[in-house]
UniProtKB/TrEMBL annotation:
Active site: 220
Family: Belongs to the aldehyde dehydrogenase family.
Presence of keyword Metal-binding: no
Transmembrane segments: none
Name of the protein this chain belongs to: Aldehyde dehydrogenase
Amino acid sequence: MDRPLKSPGLHALEEAFHRQFELSRSEPAPTLQARLDRLRRLRAAVTENEARFEAAISADFGHRSTVETAIAETLLVLGEIKHAARHLKGWMTPRKVPTAVPFAPARNRLVPQPLGVVGIIAPWNYPLQLTLAPAVAAIAAGNRAIIKPSELVPRFAELLTEAIAKKFDVTELAVTDIDDEIARTFAALPFDHLIFTGSTRVGRLVAEAAARNLTPVTLELGGKSPVIVDGSADIDEAAQRIAYGKLLNAGQTCIAPDYALVPQAAVQPFAMRLQGHMQHMFGTDPNNADYTSIVSDRHYARLERLVADAAAKGAIIMQPAASNDREWKARRKFPPTVIADATPDMTVMQEEIFGPLLPVIGMRDAAEAIAFVNGRDRPLALYWFGTDSAARDAVLARTVSGGVTVNDCLFHFAQAYQPMGGVGASGTGAYHGEWGFKTLTKFKPVFYRSRFNRLADLYPPYGAKVARLEKLMRLLS
């Protein structure tokens, strides 16, 4: 039987990879000016298509708040580009490293070099930001890159392909098709580095495929990011800030607060204030243009099952409307939902929510909250609210997470000088700013021998001269 022909998309992917791979070996280190030019072209691709990107993303979601797209996607990408361009010369400069005394007056240097070809597998929830922020790091580090967008945002993927193709040669930066064959093949290509953003389940599959080529990976995953509301917190202020963090992009955010641990006596007051702030921000009308739709019917149905399971197991469900309300469901807008008195046996507490549901669980004290967090996979983010610095520092010292925001949510992600990355089941590796440059760079150690150094004394035939040198080295060690 004849083997089936490769799809045009798969053929284009393999061709782009091989061309980039060959050039990364024959022309391994783009100049500062070449990298700055690529960053400039990437910025132009974003700014010239900003309104079109907003429209495409909104169409893919069913409805996406244009303000959220601008703030959480476009402006973050443009900020990454500006930051990289401003600091790139310093990042690229070889670094002096001290030389051990026995080898003086030789010199050591760390010389930053591009890894080669970087693969980027992007998610659907922030398709512009989580596609192009890794690309900024790849370009700044001097790499060539291939982007694989999510199949859940086809309009955006088509526009991104068009915009990048107008500004870049395929040997510099390329965007693939989104069909199933490419999804199965992409991670198995022998990239020099692979960046994946998505679920922990798929992340494991990506890591397995990459491991066959010994391809290093940066995995930006998710999980259940907790909020700890300390007894010293202003309950109303915490509820307002948590409501915003939860409902941005309708909760479809990998670092969204996933559940709240509050003092037992504060469960009901906190839940009521949380519901009040949710309704103040987004109202009770599904036509509200500020409130984003759930990306697909399948994801909407999954959220309905989580709420139904929690209700069946005794939770108090607080919503402005039922999720099966025709007006909400027709627009795929899931009503903001507080799940008070949640318990660990509920499905909503056993899987990442990725939607506008917030379980609230009562804790006897701060120690119980810390134990609750530590009894689960290490989260991508952790949020703490309160004024007691000793209680805050105890949480910071006794828990491990990808990142932390104190007295707010999400904002540690937007810090260009801080790394963004998970730990354990929530991911491995990091990027953003210089951290992205470092992740996608090989810092090659180079030793420059001095002609005045006595290293020749180590050569055979051994004798008294080696004994004297060995004695000196032991003395200095």
